[in-house]
Write a structure and sequence with these properties.
- The structure is a single chain.
- This protein is about 25% helix and about 25% strand.
- Helix 8 (about 220-235) runs antiparallel to helix 9 (about 275-285) and helix 10 runs antiparallel to helix 11.
- A 7-stranded antiparallel sheet has the order 15-12-14-13-17-18-16. Strands 5-6-10-8-9 form a 5-stranded antiparallel sheet. A 4-stranded mixed sheet has the order 1-2-4-3.
- The chain has helices at about 10-15, 25-30, 50-60, 110-115, 135-140, 150, 180-190, 220-235, 275-285, 325-335, 385-400, 425-435, and strands at about 20, 45, 65-70, 85, 95, 100-105, 125, 160-165, 170-175, 195-200, 205, 210-215, 240-245, 260-270, 290-295, 315-320, 345-350, 375-380.
- A hairpin with a 4-residue loop joins strand 5 and strand 6.
- The chain has 12 helices and 18 strands.
- The radius of gyration is 22 Å and the shape is globular.
- The chain is α+β, with helices and mostly antiparallel strands and about 450 residues long.
């Protein structure tokens, strides 16, 4: 840790909004979403507005520290030693403009808040499967959304960004004012400055259809393979995720799920019920549906589809883009869950890509076209060594189907942007970083390597 007396002037200015070691709030304030990542910053700042954020940046710059902005704690990737960790909770404004189909959003706003604001508007935003992720985090990190097959990576919806630079200047950045930086912010943001607000493009859609189908576990391979085939053949308006979960027999798990294995198929569709059900017909035929909750719903209910956890956890994981995912691959992955060395694995899901994800269109974005048709994500609990051993076993089972890359917002701890983008793209990001933040005042979740 640095000499904490160097932060005394900042503490005098921020008061209780600067949290330092020894404070009763310290452990909760510094913790990321993935609790397995141990963050040890020099202090945690929760500025009340731009002026206090400017004071934080000035204190870091003058004290030889760095600044790491982490709205909701997702994507944590290192210790943050030598950094002031900034939480943007106070930047919580949302303004939806129905005429221009845009939303102006503070950097602390989470997706569930924005989706509630859109209720009844007949407009949708490119939200992912979790409602507690920050809008800024998902969009600046590339973002895979429920609408990626029809709209492309979520980052493409960014129209403008308000950002505080290392020298304290508050800039509005868009495609007319610094297009190179705007392109970098669409998929590799976080390390160029402190984003305070975003302007996001919205799309028209009055109602959605979808939800979850749960199948008996003995038909897992057939159901998952069928869901992936159906997803690839579906119109771009239909997004399918499918996977397998085994729940531990533990008090933290709802009683009805303890010790159970389940196969899930989640769908969100911009098409009508009849069109969507036609897509799902071969999936239903592949197994026995034991539970279903498909319905028409408004955008405000989107997070209910995946029903992801809303509290931080010590889970780890790994994700990879797949060149193919046939029945044989699905069977190999499922077989891993019966091996003792993979006991830490809890489940996996595979998301169907393609459509607009595979096309390089729309505004310039570092989160460009993705050729692979699928992305696999796996979840593990337990000691770090056990997690890594289990993940290694699963990666061996995936074999050459993994292309060696992942989506930028799915990168694992330790991965740099090179695990998502090509070498030429990463070099371009370094050049933008050197111009915008030449003294490396800001650190992002990912390294430009």
């Amino acid at each position: 840790m640095t000499d904490q007396t160097a932060l005394d002037p900042l503490a005098a200015e921020l008061g209780e909004r600067l949290i330092r070691p020894g404070d009763a709030r310290w452990d909760a304030a510094r913790a990321p979403w993935a609790l397995a990542v141990e963050q040890r910053p020099e202090a945690v700042a929760v500025p009340a507005g731009v002026e206090e954020l400017r004071a934080v940046v000035r204190a870091a710059r003058d004290g030889g520290l760095t600044v790491a902005v982490q709205p909701s704690g997702h994507g944590a990737n290192g210790s943050l030693a030598g950094s002031i960790l900034v939480r943007t909770d106070a930047f919580d404004d949302v303004l939806v403009d129905l005429d221009s189909r845009t939303a102006r959003i503070g950097a602390g706003v989470r997706w569930n808040r924005l989706l509630r604001e859109l209720a009844g508007s007949a407009l949708i935003a490119p939200a992912g499967s979790s409602g507690v992720v920050s809008v800024a985090g998902l969009l600046l990190g590339g973002g895979h959304s429920w609408f990626s097959r029809s709209l492309g990576p979520a980052a493409r919806s960014l129209r403008a960004v308000e950002m505080l630079t290392a020298d304290g200047e508050l800039l509005r950045i868009d495609d007319q004012h610094d297009p190179d930086l705007m392109r970098a912010l669409r998929g590799a943001g976080g390390a160029f400055g402190a984003v305070t607000r975003l302007e996001v493009g919205l799309d028209f859609e009055r109602m959605l259809y979808g939800g979850r189908l749960v199948f008996a576990p003995d038909q897992a391979a057939a159901v998952i393979a069928s869901a992936l085939d159906a997803g690839r053949a579906a119109p771009e308006s239909v997004q399918i995720h499918t996977g397998f979960m085994r729940f531990p027999d533990a008090p933290v798990v709802p009683e009805e799920l303890r010790g159970r294995r389940v196969v899930q198929v989640d769908v969100v569709s911009r098409a009508d019920a009849a069109t969507t059900e036609a897509v799902l017909a071969p999936v239903r035929a592949a197994g026995t549906v034991v539970q279903e909750r498909l319905r028409s719903f408004g955008i405000e209910a989107l997070e209910e589809v995946a029903d992801e956890p809303t509290d931080p956890s010590p889970a780890g994981g790994w994700s990879g883009l797949l060149a193919d995912a046939d029945t044989a691959l699905v069977e190999r992955v499922l077989d891993v869950f019966d091996r003792p060395e993979a006991a830490a694995l809890v489940g996996f899901d595979v998301r169907v890509l393609g459509g607009a994800m595979a096309r390089d269109e729309g505004p310039a974005a570092v989160a460009g076209a993705v050729a692979e048709p699928f992305v696999l994500h796996t979840i593990a609990f337990g000691p770090p060594d056990a997690q890594q051993a289990a993940i290694g076993t699963l990666r061996e089972a995936v074999g050459e189907s993994w292309t060696g890359h992942s989506l930028p917002s799915f990168l694992s701890p330790g991965d740099g942007y090179g695990a998502a983008y090509g070498a030429g793209t990463v070099e371009g990001l370094r050049e933008v970083k050197a111009r915008v933040d030449p003294h490396d005042v800001f650190v992002g979740n990912r390294a430009f390597e």
